[in-house]
Amino acid sequence: MVAHTELPSQVPNEKILNKDQISKCSDAKNLGRPRRDFGDAAHLQNGAAVPVQDVEKVALTDGIKQKRKGVHHKEEECSLFVAFFTFVSYGVLLLVGYIKEFFSPPSTKEKNREDIEECPPFTNFTIYLSYGVLFLVGYIKEFFYPPSTKETNREGYVPLYIGFESFYTRNVYRRIQDCWNRAICSVPGAYIDLLERYSPDYGWTMKLTGKVLKCINVGSYNYLGFAENVGPCHDDAEKALKDYGISAGSPRLELGTSDVHRQLETLVSEFLGVEDAITFGMGYATNVLNLPSILGPGCLVFSDEFNHASLILGLRLSGATVKVFRHNDSDDLERKLREAIIHGHPRTRRPWKKAMIVVEGIYSMEGTICDLPNLIRIKKKYKTYLYVDEAHSIGALGPNGGGVVDYYGVDPKEVDIHMGTFTKSFGAAGGYIAGSKELINHLRVNSHAQMYAVSMSPPVVQQIITSMSTIMGKNGNDDGRRRIQQLSRNVKYFRQRLRQKGFIVYGHDDSPVVPMLLYLIPKISMFVRELTKRGVAGVGVGFPATRITGGRMRFCLSAAHTKEMLDKILEEVDEVGHMCCAHYSSIPKSAENIEW
Known about the structure:
- This protein has helices spanning about 15, 20-30, 50-70, 80-105, 120-145, 165-175, 230-245, 260-270, 285-295, 310-320, 330-345, 370-380, 405-410, 435-445, 450, 460-470, 480-500, 520-535, 565-580, and strands at about 45, 50, 190-200, 205-215, 275-280, 300-305, 320-325, 355-360, 385-390, 415-420, 430-435, 515-520, 535, 540, 550-555.
- Helices cover about 40% and strands about 15% of the residues.
- The strands form 4 sheets. It has a 7-stranded mixed beta sheet, with helices on both faces. Strands 3-4-13 form a 3-stranded mixed beta sheet.
- It contains 19 helices and 15 strands.
- The chain is an alpha/beta fold.
- The two termini are about 60 Å apart.
């Protein structure tokens, strides 16, 4: 860490650098350079020659003023005139962007996925127009009622709130924030109980009505249906709570390791088919706190453009050089990787210490599955490492629930670093990293999550052990296999029926994450609210979580859903879609019956 030293405002300039030092610096700087003598007109100010004597007087006056002002200055609020032109500039940028993309539309299609439809041009225009109207209304409102952005007792500090982000939150997100962060009062299983809320002041505060809404849950990551408060997982977790307590109260490197933690890590390595594994209490921190232990300055990383925020933050903290390649495009990855290896480090031109490709198994906003066979081919060809985040694919993909590796039938040892979480398919919390014994032993000693974070709660550990044993068939029945097959049937049926009804659906046919494109913010909020009234709890996603032209509903399917539940969801989605004109697909509808 670089120390930053500030000089007090009372120190005169002569104490910092006297005239002799200035002369020496000038001589050193001009050494070997031809000296030019301009006489009394040695300086140019605003394009005109100014005599040296006048320049010295101006410099002396400026120096006195600077000494009087001091080092720190209080931040002034942006004037309304400047604010107006700020928002006008955003409007112009959006308009120019639309005009450019109207005549030269960018391709949003995935590689080898010609069935993915692009945003219609007129809809593209209305998206930019809607944002422009929102910004204009927000500016007019704040022109007459300007919000205070000053912070008390924070003179000299950098402002906590960035101008445009605060403006966007106040004037766009606040109006529809009732569609997110909704309170629940049940297990997030096939059904979920929502606490009904309303806002008496246009979104500034939310109040409960006291009414509970029972909805079909297509918003939670409960892929295999293990989010239950009855059954073997619940019973085993309750027993672990009585035997071990609710928390270990210590990091793993000190007193936080028990026999259930070792049992879980052995089971994870067996399930994935690798040598060893290490577990952590938080899935997000698994990426953030372990990538800096694996990478550092002088390392090269190639990251998919749609990688999760935890991967992005972990790579930033590592200090490695990160290059982004187009989503799921192995050709773009190979081209950039080849160029980076040829040119070496941009400053020293020396070879990189190590190179790594970082991808996800299933991308949670796009519903796409990574092109693992091609990634392995590139990794072998250029001698790089491969890091696969299987947070959404472990348990949900493959005939045995082994994730994207099992889905493609590749050798698990072809992937250098397996990462995943226990929050989606296992109904628990935490994450893991698996691979070779050398890798895991390195992380046991160097990972910040091992040193400073409290170890995973024993009841949570037991929940994972029981659910994973069920998937592997260790409990003597085929319940795990039945859940995997049920999820696969639900996914194929739901995706095909959505397309048949005329909606644009992204992602691969086997992905349990089903994004349905709505594009416009009003349609997203309307869909969430209307579906909730009809007993369906879904998730709306918009900018900045997606591209400005990528607003959508995201359905997360589960093995706990029955065909009757899916038909109910499809019926309500189709009805609300007709209400807000969301059937954007131009592909001819198929009349054939789709079997479950």
